[in-house]
Design a protein that fits this description.
CATH class of the largest domain: Alpha Beta
Family: Belongs to the TBCB family.
Number of domains: 2
Radius of gyration: 22 Å
Number of strands: 12
GO molecular function: microtubule plus-end binding
CATH architecture of the largest domain: Roll
Structural class: alpha+beta
Pfam family, one: Ubiquitin_2
CATH topology of the largest domain: Ubiquitin-like (UB roll)
Subcellular location: Cytoplasm
Mean pLDDT: 80
Low-confidence stretches: 99-107
Order of helices and strands: EEHEEEHHHEEEEEEE
Protein name: CAP-Gly domain-containing protein
Length: 248
């Protein structure tokens, strides 16, 4: 059965995607989480016959007991629903307004990540390797201990040239995006540490490029984040097709 082109919307997102009618509801909801930022247990799915239609068919509603949804086969393919080309799947967060631990586990607008010294030293394109190659900082022939300001200035020099370049996060949950800001963020720390503002391709961030009321770059809601340089890799990382069959 061929894929069907559909619009996927939520209160904060809108995009066009190709959907495989053979997917189960669970498979569809897993992919929709990456598009909308809404966790599967919170998703109420409504399908419309066109992008402008006002009448919808409910695909699933976690706020209603399963026993009260007898016409829905949760383990069957989504072809059981009217998948009309260029129709629309609207994702409703049934727990909107509640704290979502999957997006923000610590109540902060930035991301904390600890990379071991051993793993960091093995990275080819890290700030550490850059300093080694250019004999800067503590690797300079006449090196003397430097204060935090000197170290931060060197990091800013390295990463400022990467503004606008593509990047991805390091770790199990790879996210891709574009570097939009490099510099200090006093709202996070007043030590002058360098933070990288990233605009993610999908709503996998924590903010819209602003933190505590101050805007550093513009991004859609939940598309922006501030990260430390050591958790990012810069390179030719095109936008992922989150609805690709290769991910099933």
């Amino acid at each position: 059965m061929p894929d069907v082109a559909l619009f996927v919307t939520s209160d904060q997102t809108s995009s066009e995607r190709r959907v495989n009618p053979e997917w189960t509801l669970d498979q569809l909801k897993t992919k929709l989480e990456q598009i909308t930022g809404i966790a599967p247990p919170r998703q109420k799915l409504l399908i419309y016959g066109s992008s402008s239609a006002t009448q919808a068919v409910t695909m699933c509603d976690p706020s209603v007991p399963i026993a009260e949804q007898p016409n829905i086969n949760l383990e069957g393919p989504i072809s059981q629903f009217p998948l009309v080309p260029y129709g629309r799947i609207h994702v409703v967060d049934v727990r909107a307004g509640e704290e979502d631990d999957s997006l923000n586990t610590n109540g902060e607008d930035f991301e904390r990540f600890v990379l071991s010294d051993k793993n960091y030293e093995q990275r080819a394109e890290s700030a550490l390797q850059w300093k080694k190659r250019n004999q800067l900082g503590r690797f300079a022939p006449d090196a003397t201990p430097k204060d935090n300001d000197s170290v931060n200035n060197e990091l800013a020099t390295l990463w400022s040239s990467r503004t606008g370049q593509r990047c991805r996060t390091i770790g199990v949950d790879e996210r891709r995006g574009t570097i939009r800001y490099v510099g200090a963020v006093p709202e996070i720390t007043d030590s002058g540490s360098i933070w990288i503002g990233v605009e993610f391709d999908e709503p996998q961030g924590k903010n819209d490029g602003s933190i505590k009321g101050r805007s550093y770059f513009r991004a859609k809601p939940l598309h922006g984040s501030f990260l430390k340089p050591e958790v990012l890799e810069v390179g030719d990382f095109p936008e992922l097709d989150l609805f690709s069959d290769d991910e099933i």
